[in-house]
């Protein structure tokens, strides 16, 4: 019997651990894109979730499991470690490799899946920027990666950018703090690996040969150096010190980082102040949005949603002074109705916050083309009809031209109106199905359901002859009913009648 260490989930024992992972039956496998790996990796359906199972050495599996658990406690961006399965044997007694189980990160993709659609150079730059942020955050936690690469990370769309997550930690190590040499060596490994991966993409004709892999490697190093300096550099202020300190904190907040503590030391001559961030944590905007609305989204998505919330407050001056109340109104009258407008069969394409971001983009494009503002319900209907069914693709507007979409705006306005229907804020939202396992590729293409809002024509008034005939039939039916009642009464049995009289006498009536 296999030995499972980790999650308290007895159903894990039902998986076919006596079979090599490469031979697991298809009904167990989820058809999700996989990146390159030194090990056999499969995505496995497990109830309503998807697990990533990797065969590896027993000691390495346990070490990586503990490493991921420690990083998760630090709120580092990484996959969730579920369990380690050891003592695996075939029915004939042959020993099998141990398996590390992690939870599949919903809506995430390996970098090669993104490039399989021949994306633009700008996408590659955004992936590199996301990886540099991930590396800085891990280094701030004291994590030495040891094998930084695009292949060892997963990427999720985060508004117009990407967020990166650590997926392979088997070469990593945790320290209280990293030395400059450890960070530099990690960065050097990252640059070398990424240049090799880009050359490989070009060899497979998945990337334009005009892109210089060495410049992309330099971009990672440059972005990492700038971000690390902004988060850890010591500055000396000798004038307007309170303002300069608040500006330093505000600049870090704009970058998406919270400053928990500052090291402040007076200069030897007593005229200035040394300032250095001591405790820095990512997620400034996402935490603010969580506090105001309860929405748990990624950093750039939170930034975009907060911008829309601020615009909502600017328009509705009567509630602008109360940020919490305005956030509640925006959530129930703008965000949630937009999300509910997405048909259930289309929800596996993007996460809710990303859908809202793209609806805002689509609304802007429509407004620019129509030269007038487009109501949110109309923009949502146009997006669901014209854009979302054709995802994934990196272009902001897909399929039909903007001219065609703009031409249909009057009809959409008549059908959907200019404001969303107000819903009960305590009603359970129907977004729980987001992020489920996508349907097989051979499934029928999703259809956007359209419901007509036309008022049915009133019934015509009956003619006088019809009224007379109806009254005659009603009279006949009434007479028949009376005769039936009389027959029923006379048909009562004598013993039933005597029982009724006996009951009346006992009651005193």
Brief summary:
By secondary structure, the protein is α+β, with helices and mostly antiparallel strands. Helix content is 45%, strand content 14%.
- In terms of structural class, how would the helical and strand content be classed? alpha+beta
Largest β-sheet summary: 5 strands, antiparallel
- The number of helices is 15
Q: What is the overall silhouette?
A: globular
Task: Write the H/E string, N to C.
Answer: EEEHEEEHHEEEEHHEHEEHHHHHHHHH
Helix content: 40-55%
Counting DSSP E segments of at least 2 residues, the number of strands comes to 13
Question: Which blocks of ≥5 consecutive residues have pLDDT under 50?
Answer: 393-398, 448-455, 488-509
Mean pLDDT over all positions: 81
**Gyration radius, rounded:** 33 Å
Task: Reconstruct the topology from this structure.
Blueprint: E1 3-6, E2 41-46, E3 49-56, H1 58-73, E4 81-86, E5 98-103, E6 108-109, H2 111-115, H3 121-140, E7 143-144, E8 153-158, E9 161-166, E10 173-174, H4 180-203, H5 213-232, E11 235-237, H6 241-254, E12 257-266, E13 273-282, H7 284-293, H8 299-315, H9 323-340, H10 352-370, H11 376-386, H12 402-407, H13 409-416, H14 464-490, H15 494-507
Antiparallel strand pairs: 1-4, 2-3, 3-5, 4-5, 6-8, 7-10, 8-9, 11-13, 12-13
Features of the shown structure:
single chain, 509 residues, Phosphorylase Kinase, domain 1, Transferase(Phosphotransferase), domain 1, 4 domains, 5-stranded antiparallel β-sheet, 3-stranded antiparallel β-sheet, globular, disordered C terminus
């Amino acid at each position: 019997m296999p030995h499972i260490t980790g999650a308290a989930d007895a159903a894990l024992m039902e998986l076919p651990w006596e079979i090599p992972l490469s031979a697991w039956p298809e009904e167990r496998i989820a058809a999700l894109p996989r990146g390159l790996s030194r090990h056999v990796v499969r995505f496995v359906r497990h109830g309503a979730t998807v697990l990533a199972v990797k065969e590896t050495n027993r000691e390495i599996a346990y070490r990586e499991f503990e490493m991921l658990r420690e990083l998760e406690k630090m709120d580092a961006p990484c996959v969730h470690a579920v369990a380690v399965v050891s003592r695996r044997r075939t029915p004939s007694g042959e020993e099998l490799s141990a398996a590390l189980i992690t939870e599949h990160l919903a809506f995430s993709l390996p970098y090669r899946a993104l490039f399989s659609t021949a994306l633009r150079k700008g996408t590659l730059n955004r992936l590199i920027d996301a990886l540099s942020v991930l590396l800085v955050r891990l280094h701030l936690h004291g994590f030495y990666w040891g094998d930084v690469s695009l292949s060892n990370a997963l990427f999720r769309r985060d508004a117009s950018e990407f967020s990166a997550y650590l997926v392979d930690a088997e070469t990593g190590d945790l320290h209280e703090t990293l030395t400059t040499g450890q960070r530099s060596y990690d960065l050097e490994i990252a640059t070398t690996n990424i240049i090799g991966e880009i050359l490989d993409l070009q060899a497979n004709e998945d990337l334009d040969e005009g892109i210089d892999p060495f410049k992309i490697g330099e971009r990672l190093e440059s972005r990492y150096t700038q971000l690390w300096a902004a988060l850890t550099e010591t500055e000396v202020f000798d004038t307007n010190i309170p303002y300069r300190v608040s500006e330093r904190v505000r600049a870090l907040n704009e970058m998406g980082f919270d400053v928990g503590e500052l090291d402040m030391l007076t200069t030897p001559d007593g005229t200035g102040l040394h300032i250095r961030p001591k405790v820095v944590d990512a997620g400034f905007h996402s935490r603010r949005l969580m506090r105001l609305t309860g929405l748990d989204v990624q950093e750039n998505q939170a930034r975009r949603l907060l911008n829309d919330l601020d615009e909502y407050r600017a328009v509705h001056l009567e509630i602008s002074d109360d940020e919490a109340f305005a956030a509640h109104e925006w959530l129930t009258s703008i965000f949630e109705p937009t999300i509910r407008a997405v048909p259930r069969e289309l929800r596996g394409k993007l996460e809710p916050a990303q859908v809202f971001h793209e609806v805002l983009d689509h609304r802007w494009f429509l407004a620019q083309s129509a030269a007038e503002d487009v109501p949110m319900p109309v923009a949502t209907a146009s997006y669901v009809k014209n854009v979302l069914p054709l995802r994934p693709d990196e272009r902001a507007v897909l399929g039909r031209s903007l001219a065609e979409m703009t031409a249909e705006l009057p009809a959409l306005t008549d059908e959907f109106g200019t404001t969303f229907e107000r819903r009960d804020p305590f009603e359970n939202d129907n977004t729980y199905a987001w992020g489920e396992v996508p349907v097989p590729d051979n499934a029928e293409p999703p259809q956007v359901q359209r419901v007509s809002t036309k008022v049915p024509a009133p019934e015509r008034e009956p003619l006088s002859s019809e009224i007379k005939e109806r009254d005659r039939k009603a009279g006949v039916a009434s007479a028949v009913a009376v005769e039936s009642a009389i027959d029923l009464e006379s048909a009562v049995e004598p013993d039933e009648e005597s029982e009724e009289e006996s009951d009346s006498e006992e009651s005193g009536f």
